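Backbones bend. Shown next:

***
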Amino acid sequence: MFVLLNSYLLAFFVSVFLILLSLKYKKYLFKIYSQYNAIQKIHEGYVPPVGGLIMFLAFYLSILFYSESLFTNQIHVFAGSILILLIGLLEDFSGKIKPIYRLMTIFIASLIFVTYQKSLPEIEVPILEIILNNIPFAEELFYAFGLTILANGMNMVDGMNGLAGMTSLSIILAISSILTLYGGIEIYFAELSLLIIILIVFLLFNFPFGKIFLGDSGAYWIGWILGVLVIEIYAKFPLNTWGALLILFYPIYEVIFSFTRKIYSGKSPFQADTNHLHIKLYFFLKADKERSIRFNSFVTVCLMPFWIIPSIMIVWTYFFSHLTILFIAILILTYNFYYKSIPNRD
């Protein structure tokens, strides 16, 4: 326990120190990539997109210090993390990495993880289960694809102050709740608690004032690492795998909805636009007013049903598993209603 406490302190002070350092010298970070003007940019001025790099460093320094962590000897997780972090950083500081290259890198990192993973969760969808169990390497491809979607989804919801961070924190609390109910929280307690500490430190600087951002590197990595944890946990314990989809609903459905919307509109699914739910809501709330930090942060609060309710629902589904699909359907209908109710920006 004493060693774990030291890991907590290390995670906290490394996070705070590196964030303060990046804010002090952000003019030098700005010089690396001063031409950032993405179509979905909604904030004024330059905000260092190094929150993810800082979280990565704080997390891995802390678990290396705590040698009992399950992640200490999982080289396939670390290798995947490094690939995702690097491709994200290249985009953060060059803006020239095409989406398809980023997705392919995340997919390769995910394949590395699932290929060397000892076991994968059983899918409780009869037809899909038969396909995955009878076609060679189909299961690995399925989970690698799922991790890629999740990482990309977390990146899509990033941009609003606190949205990606709150979503990640909610997912961790949902995982912790289901493990506590099952009686396996002690196995992943160190990893989950360290991520909570690091995320809270990040959110103190990100919400509501937006002093630092996750960046592509951070959004990709935190989404991916949470997916890795969910896969490990649902493979280790006989939990209803529909619950995993409920926990990860918001970032995953954001990708599915966005992909479908763009295809239906005759656009490339890899082309960035301003018609994501959170961006539409932002422009609707601020109307013709000048950009203001309060509109950015208020969007995160308005979208609370999608990032907090799944964490509450997952407790219900532990006792009443038949409600899982119903809850997912309710969230889909609610998301679609939200989206259709907000006019597109013309």
